[in-house]
Write a structure and sequence with these properties.
Strand 1 and strand 2 form a beta hairpin. The protein contains 16 helices and 14 strands. It is of the alpha/beta class. It has 2 domains: about 150 residues, ATPase, nucleotide binding domain (Nucleotidyltransferase, domain 5); about 190 residues, Nucleotidyltransferase, domain 5 (2-Layer Sandwich). Adenosine-5'-diphosphate binds next to helix 10 and helix 12.
């Protein structure tokens, strides 16, 4: 019999949710509560009766989840996804930072909550709303096991040479300064899918996964396990992103801190996290669609932003090819990776010379948009496949929560 699993992704001012029937993976309902804490919030919901949208104030995450559980169980059209909240077999929570403690998804116990509270200073924007979501779910759906799925967990297999920074060792020992990496649920999901598409066991595949969304990161996956990744202690390191700078010379910060307008650390933090990346270079937008259109019309800085974005990816592909054994595939995912054929082409341009990785331009150009199918866009003689695999973090979280619910005997 199928079990209903609610997946929650609580951000600083929003809650995204999906209700799945597992193990089939069918989506029964999904929605989004946004602008939590502002004067006017919004609740969008979809179920088999179609879309609804309501504008209303949402005081906090607790109030947001209260709206969600109400909407899941009531519908004027009689299409409510649930008869009763007791039908929910488990709740899966996306949790951004699991520190070094969590190497996989876990049942959330009071002990786990305490550990997450300790990790809150590593992810001050993300872990507090995640904890608020866990507390609210426990209150409204008390019978269901709560499962935590961590963005960092998949990268806990990084070897020390990859996760240690070249900083005094006590910073790691005293303050836990190390590379953690993020987007782990997505990297794991597409790496596993790649193994299936290549007809290999999940622990027999070597791939480079490129998660390119608003935040962007890459991972080197050796025999199914993450051995390096581009994000670090925080999601700021690595690739060029929508508004984040990714890799820079850290001395830029000291240099700017001497300038009158950047004296405050807060200003610098916002500069690197919110005003840099594609937005900062182009001076136009953080949205790749806007930049592609502008570049096509001759906007030089938009074109430069896209070139720098793709160049950084290409450098990381080279670096990760160097640390992996025989590479089986480069995988593109995320809103940009799944849709922006031009950026995929730029990111792998020239890789045939030294790495033998060759794109089939015609195949690449047809993969994007509606339906977003999985595709192999490498030429037949390419040394490694180039795959486009739509990510599905929610489904991966639902699968983990289902597995734990079954182990707990909550699915009868
Ligand atoms: P998030 O990280 O918020 O989940 P997404 O994975 O949805 O973000 O990715 C958002 C990015 O994907 C944006 O830069 C957007 O412009 C880009 N994107 C979405 N659809 C397309 C498209 N059809 N062509 C090019 N870029 C796209």
């Amino acid at each position: 019999m199928s079990a209903k699993i609610l997946v929650l992704n609580c951000g600083s001012s929003s809650i995204k949710y999906q209700l799945f029937a597992m193990p089939e993976g069918t989506v029964l309902a999904r929605g989004l509560v946004e602008r939590i804490g502002e004067e006017r919030g919004c609740h969008k919901h979809w179920d088999s009766g179609g879309d609804t949208s309501a504008q209303l104030q949402v005081r906090d995450h607790r109030a947001g989840l209260e709206m969600i559980v109400k909407r899941l169980t009531t519908s004027q059209a009689g299409t409510a996804a649930l008869k009763d909240l007791s039908d929910i077999a488990a709740v899966g929570h996306r949790v951004v930072h699991g520190g070094e403690t969590f190497t996989g998804s876990v049942l959330i116990t009071p002990e786990v909550v305490r550990t997450l509270e300790v990790h809150a200073d590593l992810a001050p924007l993300h872990n507090p709303p995640n904890l608020a979501g866990i507390a609210a779910a426990k209150e409204f759906i008390p019978h269901a096991p709560q499962v935590g799925c961590f963005d960092t967990a998949f990268h806990m297999t990084l070897p020390e040479v990859a996760y240690q920074y070249a900083l005094p060792r006590e910073l790691y020992e005293k303050y836990h300064v190390r590379r953690y990496g993020f987007h782990g649920t997505s990297h794991r999901y597409v790496a596993r899918r790649a193994a299936e598409l290549l007809g290999k066991h999940k622990y027999a595949v070597n791939v480079i996964t490129c998660h390119l969304g608003n935040g962007c990161s890459m991972a080197a996956v050796k025999e199914g396990k993450s051995v390096d990744t581009s994000m670090g202690l925080t999601p700021l390191e690595g690739l060029v992103m929508g508004t984040r700078c990714g890799d820079i010379d850290p001395a830029i910060i000291f240099y700017l801190a001497e300038k009158p307008e950047y004296k405050a650390l807060k200003t610098l933090n916002s500069l690197l996290n919110k005003q840099s990346g594609l937005l900062g270079i182009s001076g136009l937008s953080n949205d790749v669609r806007t930049l592609l259109q502008a570049a096509a019309k001759g906007h030089l800085r938009a074109a430069l932003a896209l070139d720098i974005f793709a160049y950084r990816i290409r450098k990381y592909i080279g670096a990760y090819a160097a640390v992996l054994p025989k590479l089986h595939a480069v995988v593109f995912t995320g809103g940009i990776g799944e849709n922006a054929a031009l950026l995929r082409a730029k990111a792998v341009a020239g890789l045939e010379h030294n790495l033998g990785i060759k794109l089939d331009a015609a195949l690449n150009n047809v993969v994007s948009g509606a339906g977003r199918p999985e595709a192999d866009i490498a030429t037949a003689d390419s040394s490694a496949r180039i795959l486009v695999i739509p990510t599905n973090e929610e489904k991966a979280i639902a699968a983990d929560a289902y597995e734990i619910a079954v182990a707990q005997g909550h699915t009868d």
